[in-house]
Structures are given as structure tokens and as C-alpha cells.
């Protein structure tokens, strides 16, 4: 039995949190590989460091804040000299890259800068494990996590990762626990890349796939996947198990607890995924499996904020062929994936999927894209929207679902509806300002009053 355990930012935020995670790792001898995110807050600080026009003063403040988080952990570890000198090296590398970015705005440099967060946390976490008596090595995941060169949201190269893992990672597991980084990788030239924000879950699943592991554990700040984000509804309940399909839909439609791509490697190799809280491991968590005992019509409600709706209008669309093909080709050229779509005689409205959006938070709609679209149609953009998704089973084939849902939605304006393509979801696009109330109303009616 082999388990890959991933610990998110809050789980490795400080020394005490890291000690709790170390106890979880050591409690299960099957755990061979540990994947960590950057300590909580560090990636946000590094993202700000990549922004243009930072004053020198702000840049130094940001560097100091990252250093304070990392040295705080080192101090509590008693400053072992090898770890201290490696941490000094990483933090001075971070300072040097941030200075280079003032003049050179290359995306490869931004990814190199972002990677220092995970490099520091993995170094420190391996030291915490050793302090607790384990044999643990920190391993540079860039030796095996091969991606393309799309900096900021690089695409993992599955076959190559598998070979590299077999050659460079598996031999190390004979006599040591391996602690490695989530979120980062390297292209064929050895340049550092990142997988997009929240990508450490995906890293853990990819490594589990390459290692042919039996399970991936995602340790976070909530004891499992809930019927909705517990921060949004006090009545949200943890789910004991859900299917791969349901989990994939939840992650895609905004349940931040899992990066949307996490389920793909798990499905390919039928690897079970566990989600639990590193602060309260005794509470158990959620198992995501291929087969589950119950497949209820309503499983959860998810919300994705800051959605962009693109409205395209063209008289050429009337009874014409190929218009949509053209629009989709243009969006694909700009690496934008379309999310929801509705059409009428001369209009197409679509929401854009920000799932693969850039690690540095750069916007999706570039000038070049807008100009290219404008050559074929009139384009308008609407912002300040949220997509609320009801996730479940047989939604498209169960009578009464629409009546139930739209009765609850009566007080709200629904800008767009998508239902029917998948048996697992029904989505509505609403005003950002209504999103919390819509989620609350749906959750109360679908999960609390009927329970
Ligand atoms: P980590 O840093 O461990 O990766 P994240 O912040 O990325 O943690 O994800 C955990 C958060 O996901 C939770 O604190 C919670 O607010 C949010 N979340 C959103 N939807 C759900 C859901 N359905 N169930 C549980 N958590 C959810
Ligand atoms: N540290 C990265 C982020 O904050 C990756 C992750 O946490 O999954 O997005
Ligand atoms: Mg996360």
C-alpha cells in the first residue's frame, strides 16, 4: 500500500501546524511521499512581488514578510545549520529574482519566484519530520514534474512524468520518506513552471498516478468536502463519500477544497482520494471513490465568483454554418476554454473558464483576443457575476428538479441557466451581490429542510 499525502498552506503555516502534519504522516506507514504547498500567505506575497510598478519599499516589505514566516519555523526547529544555509540561499534567490523582475518581465522569472514558496516549506517540513525521528529527504519535484513551457499555467506531461518518477523518485523511497513540492514543475529545458493557483492538489494526484499509489490524502483546513463551502452556510455538512464525477463537478464549479484537475489522474488509475483536516484528523473526512453507496439527486452546491460573460452578436450567424467553430478556434488560440454557452438566432453568450488561469492572476481577456473577436462580431463583456452550481446525480432526467430550484430562486434575477448537458449539474449565473444569498437559499431548501 502506498499513500501520497498533500498538506495545504494553512496545514504548513507555522511550526506547530507542521508538527501536527508530521504526526499524521508518521501515523500511517503507507505514506511514502509528502507533497506540500507554500506556507499560508506566502504565495500571495510572492504573487504581489511579481507585479509591475512595485515601489522598492513595498518590495522589501514583501521579502521581509516571507522571510519572517520561514525563519519563524526555522527558529522553532532550533536552526539546524544545513537547513538554515539552504533557507538563506532560497530567500536570497527570491530577493535576486524579484529585483530582476523590475526590468525583465519574463513569465519564466515569475514562476521561478513563485516556486521559492514551496521550496522553503518542503525544506522545513522534511526537517520537522527528521526532528520527530523519521528518515525524510526533501526532493526537488522539478526533476520529475515535467510540464510544457506555458509559464503560469503549465500543462503536465503525463508519460514523461511517469518515466522520470520511476527513475528518479522511486529508488529514493526504499529507505526514506520523500517530502516534495506541489504547484511547481519544470519544462524540457529545466526552466521552472507553475500549474496555476491551488495546483498542489493536482501535483499530489499526478505523483500518485506515476507512483501507482493506492490513495491520495488531501489534508487541509476543513474535515472533508461539505454540502457547500462551510464558510458560506453554517448548516453545511461533511460528506462521508462522493463519486469521482461529483467531486470533479464540485471542483470545476468552484469548491476550492480541491483543484479542478485533481480528479483526472485519480480517475485514470482509480486512486481513492481522501480529504480531511490536518488540525482535526480525528474527525475523519470524505472519501472520493469510483463507486459510492448513495447517489442522491442533490449532493452539493458550489459557487464560482468573478465570472465573465462574453456576449457575441452577429447577423452572419443567422442560418449560417461555421460561425461557432470560428469563435471557438479563436478562443482556443488564446488558450481560453469556454465554460457555459447559450445561443439564440444572432447571439451567443458564453462564460469563460478561469480554471487554468495564470498563477500570477493575469486576466484572461487580452487586447489581442478582443480585437480578433471584434473582426467577426460585436462583443460585449459583463462582469460581477457568480456561477452557482447544483451538483448531484440524474439531474437532467429527474422530474421536478427545475420546479424545486426555480421556486427557491424566485426572488433573484437569473442571468443565464445551463442544464441538460451533464446528469451531474444545473448551473445558474447570478449577480455577484446575490451569490451568497442564492447559495444559502438553495442549501437551506435542498439540504436542510428536507433532511
Ligand atoms: P489548502 O490551502 O489546504 O489547499 P484551500 O483554501 O485551497 O486549502 O481549500 C480549503 C477551503 O475550501 C476551505 O477552507 C473552504 O472554505 C473551501 N471550500 C469551498 N467549498 C468547499 C466544500 N464544498 N467543502 C469544503 N470546503 C470547501
Ligand atoms: N501555493 C500555491 C497557491 O497558493 C499552490 C497551492 O497552495 O496549492 O496557489
Ligand atoms: Mg488549495
UniProtKB/TrEMBL annotation:
It holds the Pfam family AA_kinase. Keywords: Amino-acid biosynthesis, ATP-binding, Kinase, Nucleotide-binding, Transferase. Its EC number is 2.7.2.4. It catalyses: L-aspartate + ATP = 4-phospho-L-aspartate + ADP. Residues 316-354, 388-445 form the Aspartokinase ACT domain. InterPro entries: AceGlu_kinase-like_sf (IPR036393), ACT-like_dom_sf (IPR045865), ACT_Aspartokinase (IPR054352), Asp/Glu/Uridylate_kinase (IPR001048), Asp_kin_monofn (IPR005260), Asp_kinase (IPR001341), AsparK_Bifunc_asparK/hSer_DH (IPR042199), Aspartate_kinase_CS (IPR018042). Residues 1-276 form the Aspartate/glutamate/uridylate kinase domain. It comes from the Bacteria. GO terms for molecular function: aspartate kinase activity. Belongs to the aspartokinase family. This is Aspartokinase.
